[in-house]
């Protein structure tokens, strides 16, 4: 079980306030979707949890320790941007990642790329966009951190790749012990996979609910909820 808490967290970029006094405790495990309009603060929220950026005020803690440069073994961040080296092969990418991340599970990484039908001898620069996204996911999941922060893993992918990526996450996530946070605008596709949902609007978390409970009490789809609270 993982305890992630945010206490009055605010973050500005220049004069722009990207997060405003976010105060919550995240679920201990399972898959949580973070949805919201463009610019609502989703990426900023994930970067703060992964310790890639620091809040201007407030605290983010994972299992009681403030996140920061040293929290890499607690939370992994999958960036929407290209984070692979083009000149490496798939196999070299795994070996390189094993050298960079303590606790990296090489065996899991090899299993994942095999399941993804990637050839370990292929150079990253020759992979299709979908296969690059798969490789990024394999490397992130093989870190086996208690918290996985996946920032737009479905963005720009065709429907079959999106479905495959969601399937891989569900199959290989240790749902009893890991918490996976996913941001996406593909709300309809994401909804069936979610245990929990956070809806963000203007730098605040305006909905923080268990998805089952939400379905029973509100009888609305997440898209409808999103429209209602951000419209
Ligand atoms: N490095 C930065 N410098 C300046 N402003 C930034 C920076 N990163 C984010 N912002 C601004 O902070 C706000 C929140 O951005 P963030 O990327 O967290 O939102 P988001 O919900 O992830 O958006 P999207 O859905 O478009 O990816 C936006 O207004 C954005 O323009």
Automatic annotation (TrEMBL):
Q: Which UniProt keywords apply?
A: ATP-binding, Nucleotide-binding
Q: Which domain of life is it from?
A: Bacteria
State the name under which the record lists this protein: ABC transporter ATP-binding protein
Q: What SMART domains does the entry give?
A: AAA
Q: Name one GO molecular function term.
A: ATP hydrolysis activity
Which parts of the sequence belong to the ABC transporter domain?
Answer: 4-227
**InterPro entries listed in its UniProt record:** AAA+_ATPase, ABC_transporter-like_ATP-bd, P-loop_NTPase
Checking Pfam families in the record gives:
ABC_tran (PF00005)
Q: Does the keyword ATP-binding apply?
A: yes
Which PANTHER family does this entry report, sorted A to Z? ABC TRANSPORTER, ATP-BINDING PROTEIN, SKFA PEPTIDE EXPORT ATP-BINDING PROTEIN SKFE
């Amino acid at each position: 079980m993982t305890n992630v808490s945010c206490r009055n967290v605010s973050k500005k970029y220049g004069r722009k306030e990207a997060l405003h006094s976010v105060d919550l405790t995240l679920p201990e495990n399972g898959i949580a979707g973070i949805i919201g309009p463009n610019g609502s603060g989703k990426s900023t929220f994930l970067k703060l949890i992964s310790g890639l950026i620091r809040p201007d005020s407030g605290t983010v803690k994972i299992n009681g320790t403030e996140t920061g440069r040293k929290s890499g073994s607690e939370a992994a961040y999958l960036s929407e941007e290209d984070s692979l080296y083009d000149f490496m092969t798939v196999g070299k990418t795994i070996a390189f990642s094993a050298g960079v991340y303590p606790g990296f599970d090489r065996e899991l990484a090899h299993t994942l790329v095999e399941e993804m039908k990637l050839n370990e001898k292929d150079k990253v620069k020759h992979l299709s966009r979908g296969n690059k996204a798969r490789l990024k996911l394999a490397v992130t999941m093989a870190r086996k951190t208690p918290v996985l922060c996946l920032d737009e893993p479905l963005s720009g992918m065709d429907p079959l790749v999106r479905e495959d990526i969601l399937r891989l996450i569900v199959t290989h996530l240790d749902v009893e012990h890991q918490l996976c946070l996913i941001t996406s605008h593909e709300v309809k596709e994401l909804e069936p996979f979610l245990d929990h949902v956070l809806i963000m609007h203007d730098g605040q978390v305006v909905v923080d609910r268990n998805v089952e409970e939400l379905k029973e009490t509100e009888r609305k789809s997440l898209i409808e909820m999103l429209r209602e609270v951000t419209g």
